[in-house]
Amino acid sequence: MVDGTEKTSPDGRGRRRQGELETQVLSALGRAPGPVTAAWVQEQLGGDLAYTTVITILTRLYAKRAVTRTRAGRSFEWTPVADGAGLVAMRMRKLLDTQEDRDAVLSSFVSSLSSHDEELLRSLLTEADDPER
Fold first, then answer.
1. I need a surface site. Which of 11, 19, 64, 122 has the fewest CB within 10 A?
2. pLDDT higher than threshold 70 for residue 8
3. What stretch or stretches form a coiled coil here (predicted)?
4. Which residues in 18-111 belong to E strands, given as ranges?
């Protein structure tokens, strides 16, 4: 562990995919009975993950506004704001915000969707336009 993240997947077969730890931490927080400590999160993830790694991931999620924290003695208790899907959506929005030609990016994205995804997106946009539907 050089940069605060474990270098192997939980099954020991290689590097984790980008964002995998964040998703696992958010999933654990989503199952929590309320605000929880980093030690609780570490325990939920199987305990093989270093405590400092859990703190690093929670701090990164806090910087991304995917979790909130409240002081609990000398530590913090953590609460999710977004789930795994919400975190991916935040990443997509952040990337989109960096582009000069948002129209071109969105057009390219939509044209690359499968027919199922396109129908789902159309349905979601229709619902957003007509909340009574």
1. 11
2. no
3. none
4. 67-72, 75-80
